[in-house]
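User: My advisor, Dr. K., asked me to get a structural model of this assembly before our group meeting. I'm new to this, so sorry if the format is off. These are the inputs:
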Amino acid sequence: MSTQAPVAPAPAEEAGRVTTFEPVIIGFTCNWCSYRAADLAGTARTKYPPNIRLIRLMCSGRLDPTFVLKAFAEGADAVMVSGCHPGECHYIEQNYKALRRFQLLQRTIEALGIEPARLQLVWASAGEGVRLAGEIARITEEVRALGPLDWPAGEIVDIDGVDLDAAWGATGGDPDASPGDADGPPASPGGAKPDHAAGPLPAAEASR
Amino acid sequence: MSGNGHASFGAPKDGPIKGVPSAGVPAEGEIRIGVYVCHCGSNIAGVVDVVEVARWAGETLKDQGVVIARDYRFMCSSPGQELITDDIRKLGLNRIVVAACSPHLHENTFRTATARAGLNPYLCELVSIREQDSWVHTDKAAATAKAKAILAGGVERVRRNTPLDPLVVDINPATLVVGGGIAGIQAALEIADAGFHVYLVEKDASIGGHMAQFDKTFPTLDCAACILTPRMVSAGTHPNITLLTWSEVTHVDGFVGNFTVTVKKKARYVDEDLCTGCGICQEKCPKKVIDEVYEAGLGYRKAIYTPFAQAVPRTPVIDRENCTYFIKGTCKACEKFCEKDAIRFEQQDQELTLEVGNIILATGYEIFDARKIAQYGYGRLPNVFTSLEFERLSNSAGPTNGRIVLRDGVTEPKTVGVIHCVGSRDRNFNNYCSAICCMQSLKFAHLVKEHTGATVYNFYIDMRTAAKGYDEFYQRVMEEGTLFVRGKPAEVTEAGRLPGEEGKLIVQVEDTLAGRQRRIPVDMVVLSVGLEPRADAKELAQRFGISCSFDGWAIEKHPKLDPVATMTEGVFIAGCISGPKDIPNTVSQGAAAAARVLGMIQQKHMKLEPIKASVHAEQCSGCRICNTMCPYNAISFLGAEGVSSINAAMCQGCGTCVAACPAGAIAGTGFSDEQVLAQIEGLLSVGADGTPLKRSAYPVAHQQGDGNRPTPAETVRA
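Assistant: The format is fine. Below is the predicted structure of the whole assembly, which you can bring to the meeting.
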């Protein structure tokens, strides 16, 4: 039942059983459509895997990209963004803004070494409980197949401790920021501006 | 589960809690949280180990400020609510988290209870461990772990909640009713009788809706026109009702209590004030047009017409597409004969702006297009009729004066087959039951017997006659000798191949009770077509800000407990807009929606959710990115100060500008960055197996959720 495979020993394996990886997924839902779809799935007792945990926002347009990155940083294996179908937004058109941010975020996380399939967009109207449950099941299986979000393990470096000016100077990686960087994004040797920065602020780099 | 129904964990303690991070927490300091985990009978406790969740919260979340954690059988009950209020008073709680059902169900209950104990209601959070956990998962250990995570998310979030005060708005007593069918008429009359003004908007030339087309109404067989037209007249003459027929709502602005509605009043080309409704213009108009709407294509009307004799208003409209004057520039027969000089060929569409406090949508349904089921031959075989066509045939005011005849207009059928569930309970078309077709088919059987004495076959899948007097009617029709064949016909064909089949329509059906295939020759087939949402249902839902199910029916606020309200405050629904209904149910809903509106009007003021965005002027760089984000134009740029500013009354609280501001200068109450980021932390503090989740070592975006610092993600904000 490990979620961070490189470091966490799976308890069930100790018991000699073969276990499947249980991902933890954060789902952002909007108050008017997708959260209500989740409510409807519940009312109808439509079953789906327990791996997703939902957060209610008033609108998918409220989705700050930070929320998604925060979820990954806190240990989520995947993030689902959901809202009303295009053209059906309770706030007229704000889900289109969520769509734009989603597309930008997919490129950003790819640059960070996260598979784009770990960030998924699902439109679900308030009546689509069964469909939302199906999509959650699909995402769960896809993420299960991907395995744990395999970011380099090691000491947690808080951004508080990082010299922002130095980081924004694009001089490459702060050694403290990416210790033991074996499978993650490649660390830049420093000096030249990297294509995909592995320094403390790759998100900033990727979007410049 | 403890014997007395509840238990508590985490000894109440005094004094400040040590080691609690204070980011985003109000300065007054100590956070004292009460956690309440609901069993909901066995609804939650059957899957989630609620006692364990409460125990865990009391121990593990102590450092987060949880002072007391209890589980209780029904938190929404009075004793459950008293647990909260007593603890607030006795333990000095200043934050409440209830883990129970969806906030859409009971958030208000617990916030009200919190307020009763003197705490700001917005310091109470309801997290859903029922709809999102116990009801959708079967693995008890995983569901319990998820409940802990959800609860931890709620605790982290509530720490960052701030006291909020609802905005109070006035409620305009005027009401808009959209749709002049029986539901809309009923709603309008109820409100108007109570002394408040109603604008009744109908897109057709007359109110009355589908009911005006019907002949008899089941199960009592009273004539539809006889019971409907008095209501129509009352609505048309009521001093408190402004009737706007031949009109459509094009735009809706504002919010509960204060809607501004734009109505397009299409040109009638007739002066409504002068017209007496004498009908001479219709008599003299030389242009005959097939009436596809009211007569279902079976009859004719003129180019200037009222849909039917008892139309309200009596003022006719000119059908511009077919009027000889509009096509060729000459004719004007109507103008010549009109004694009141009421014809106005130069009339233009008008735009009216209405100010209303509440809206009732009663826009009804459309019938299933029987052409989609090609094997039943509608549109190809002349003697296959739809139920609506049959209504017109049997109506004494219809095109045949009530004679039930074949498409040739003369021959009475000797045998009639009525096919149920056409387009309903059919995976190829609509899964749902259209609710009225069984009874309507029985009514047809009775009317055919009564008018022609013909043999009638009813082809049904299941008979559904569950309402007052319905099953008695079914028995009556059986006693009258109608033949019932249980089976869904495979096809209707005119290819006769057995003796007695020439010139007949043959219904090929598997008689599932007899267990064999049958070919039943009939003269006439009536397709009891199902009901469908209006073609423009989704457009309409969007215009009024309500939700539709995937098939297009409007979604109720609660399907059982609030069937006439929608998720949008101040917008109500009645009748078939939310699904197929018979007339008694439709009328009840019209009255129920009116009662809800009257309740709103009588409050005079209303509290609005204080979920709003606001700009910190000192942090605003004046980049104006947010200005174009707002769909309500609530954000304006103050040129003198060089900053943007949000009008709280216009802000609807979507939060898009909050997410878009690159300087983090816009704060959104109720869903602040701090609250959401903290909730993410809480949700991810527990792994899938219930043990602490190890978070990523990667440094990106790992920070305290205080929202004050520039974050890496800000540069990817749209």
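One thing worth pointing out at the meeting: The first helix of chain A runs from residue 11 to 14.

User: Perfect, thanks a lot.
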